[in-house]
Amino acid sequence: MTVRAQKVWEEVEIVAGYITYIDLVRPFIGEKKIVSTGMRQEIDRCREVVRLAQEGNSVALVSSGDAGIYGMAGILIECLQEAGCIDIPLEIIPGVTAANAAASQLGAPLMHDFAVISLSDLLTPWELILKRTRLAAEGDFVLAIYNPKSKGRQEQIEEIRKLLLEIRSPETPVGIVREALRGETPQVTISTLEEFTRLPIDMLTTVIIGSSQTKVIGPYMVTPRGYVL
Known about the structure:
7 helices
C-alpha cells in the first residue's frame, strides 16, 4: 500500500464499495462508516458516493485492482457530471491491476507490448471483443485476459483459444493465475495455447497469453524485451 493510500484511510469519514472489496480492506477501515452494495450496482454506488460528498462528507470509494482500469473511476466522474458537481475535489489513487499482479506471479510475461481485454460482454458486444482480440493477436501483442469465465459465460474463453490458434502456435505459453496478490496463496499454472482451457478458470482468474516471442525459462514465463545477452 502506498503512503498516500495509508493517509486516505486516516482522512476519510466514509468508505463505500462492493461488499467483497470492502471485506478485503476491512483491516484498514477501523470504525469508519461503511456503505456497501452488491455486484452490478456500480452506478447506484457512485450516485450514493456523490450524494454523500455533496453533503460535505469525505468518502473513499473502494475499487478492485486499479480504479482507472476496468474500475470505478470513470463511472464516478460521469456521476459527478450527472449531478452537476464535477468541481467536487476527487483524488484517484493508483493500485495494482490484475495484469500486473498475475505477471508478477508468472515471471516477466509483460516485458514487451501487451493488450488487456475483458471477456465480459455485459457492457461490450461479443463481436467487438472478438474483433479486438483478433487485431491484438495479429499485432503480436501479449494478451492479458480479464473476466475469462463465469457461471453464465462458459464458452467465450474457448472461442478465444480457437481464434488465437488461427494466428499463433499451439505451443504458445499461457499463464493462468487465480487470486493474484489477494492475500491468499495464488494458484499459478503455465500451460500452452493448445491446452490451457482444460484447466480450472473462473472470474477470479487472469489469463496471460504469450506473443510469438514469449518463452518459458525454468519456472518462469518471459517475453524478452529484445536485449542482446
